[in-house]
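Sharing a chain and its predicted structure for anyone who wants a worked example. Both blocks are below, sequence first, tokens second.
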Amino acid sequence: MRLNSKHQKTLYAIFENPVKSNISWNDIENMLIALGAEVSEGAGSRVIFVFNGIRAVFHRPHPPKRSR
């Protein structure tokens, strides 16, 4: 398992203190996949990750509402 520079930046951003609020969900998902996590879609916006036998369920963020 090897992370490219973008995945490494995402990992560092997650563990910064305080955590950055502008980390994209897509970057997090791609980093977890690069680390070897298995991903499956749940009901609605649920996403299930399985990594080293550990199962985690998250909700994909909804797109922001556009102002008129």
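Comments welcome. The helical segments are 5-14, 25-35.
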